Amino acid sequence: MHISLKFNQFLSFIIILLALYFSPVSSGETSSKLTNANMKHILEHIQTFYVDEVNPQKLNSSAVDSVLKQLDPYSEYLDEQELEDLFNITNGQYTGLGIEVEMRDEHIVIIASLNNSPAAQAGLQKGDILLSINGQTVINKPIKQVASLISKTETSAVNLSIARSGFSTPLDFEVERQIIELETVTSKVDIAGYAYLRIVSFNNHTLHDVARHIARLKTENGLPLKGLLIDLRDNPGGILDSAVAISDLFLRGGIIVSTKGRFYDANQVFTASNSDILNGAPMVVLINKGSASAAEILAGALKDNKRATIVGTRSYGKGSVQSLIPLGNGQTALKLTTAKYYTPSGISIDGIGITPDIPITQSSLPQSDKLAIMNLSKGKENQVFTSTFKDVQLAKAQKILEQ
Description:
Elements: E1 16-18, H1 30-34, H2 39-49, E2 76-78, H3 80-90, E3 93-96, E4 99-104, E5 107-113, H4 118-122, E6 129-133, E7 136-137, H5 143-151, E8 157-163, E9 171-176, E10 178-181, E11 185-189, E12 194-199, H6 206-221, E13 227-231, H7 240-249, E14 255-260, E15 268-271, E16 283-287, H8 294-304, E17 309-312, E18 320-327, E19 332-342, E20 358-359, H9 367-377, H10 392-402
Parallel strand pairs: 12-13, 13-16, 16-17, 17-20
Antiparallel strand pairs: 1-18, 2-19, 3-10, 4-5, 5-6, 6-7, 6-8, 8-9, 11-12, 14-15, 14-19, 18-19
Helix pairs in contact: 6-7, 7-8
């Protein structure tokens, strides 16, 4: 099933299956939105489509803000703006700063600024550590919450305070949020013919991007690629179909993933065609605890079909599928968990995650640098942290690929 971004194509109650982003919305936002929704229809949809049977007597429908919270962290009501934002993301657009980040030792580390993005133009660099956003500390805050602080800023300008190696005081930046055309794939090939492919999320364009990048890498190499490392770290997921189609690029058969739920269309088995664009060249997939949802589908498919070696740390464990069900005139929707997905070996990874074949942990900051960063976040000057950004996981994963 291919996902359309046009509501008039599913107003006849076609349900769109998504392996949506793993982090739930922040609490306390649903009450004002649901008061205007048709609660009767919402409860009917829950009874019909929710992945598990629900006792209607246990749903406190009088407290509308808590109805969906009683189900799971991923089911929610989407108002017009939230629905538009979701569609923009699945179509490769979002409003933001243009940075890629990684959680390391309870700190949010910038690992890249997108080309020509507001972040790059402002001077944010790889290895910078976020201390605060608009005066609110982000030390030990999950990536989803940090992203929310940026996206929900009332003004277009976002004030960032960062710690940078070699500087004794925090550096402050004012960065304007802009519409970013999200390039979900980056890649490179080394002189030995081994390729690196990073996928940051799964949207409607990711399959095309992956195929285009691999074709370019082959051309640059001048010979068939000797191997491919796919980096899925901190990839929060995206569209189910995208993960399935990308898995199919590298498999010559077998099950990719299966989904199971209470209504008929929630039960599906996705199988691979007889094609492998790498012609059997070795593969390594790099994951961490931020790899979730669609990223776990790809990792699980390649692992269980023995197509790739999975390295890194255990993934997040978001093994459920959400569907968009239009409400009213289609300007709002119910995002409802309608199925759980299972890896080719028949295992549900929900709450468990994908276990790597070869565990590799990321390097930790020295205690002195951790203390310096904490002091900088509290406004103390003359605190210098000196660590440079070293990607130990990537370096070791590359060695495994080349063995």
